[in-house]
Write a structure and sequence with these properties.
Layout lengths: L1 H15 L20 H22 L21 H20 L3 H6 L12 H21 L1
């Protein structure tokens, strides 16, 4: 979680250096998540919640029905930091509960994500970290 939090802080640091007017600037792409920095941020926050939800589903626990963030929630670069913080706090609480389980039960948790092979929790969190790093770099290059 320390590295996940660091990746989130770095993502927000880069994002917050972007002039607000560039947030909604559109560019040609076949991926709607990458059509603007705002869309990218919506995607990043939704994904962070999505990773937490994948872990809950793998444990057969209820997934809260909270509306995902949209354009009205991300109106400035600074508005992303608190939204991402909520997602990371959720993930941390879920992982804290898993840490209380006996090790064989922890290892038995298998996540079935739509993008690939089944994975353990630690691999999903590594994916979440790299996801933030990838999109941070994308904003830097924007």
């Amino acid at each position: 979680m320390d590295e996940y939090a660091r990746a989130a802080v770095d993502f927000c640091r880069v994002l917050e250096a972007v002039p607000g007017t560039r947030l909604v600037e559109q560019r040609a792409t076949s991926d709607p998540d990458c059509a603007s920095i705002q869309n990218l941020c919506i995607h990043v926050v939704r994904a962070a919640h999505g990773y937490a939800n994948l872990i809950l589903r793998a444990r057969e626990l209820p997934v809260p029905e909270t509306p995902p963030p949209g354009p009205d929630d991300i109106t400035t670069p600074a508005s992303v930091r608190p939204l991402l913080a909520v997602a990371l706090r959720r993930t941390e609480a879920i992982l804290h509960d898993i840490a209380k389980l006996p090790e064989p039960e922890q290892e038995a948790i298998t996540i079935r994500a739509r993008w690939g092979l089944p994975m353990q929790v630690d691999l999903l969190i590594e994916h979440a970290i790299v996801h933030l790093l990838r999109h941070r770099r994308q904003i830097e290059r924007w």
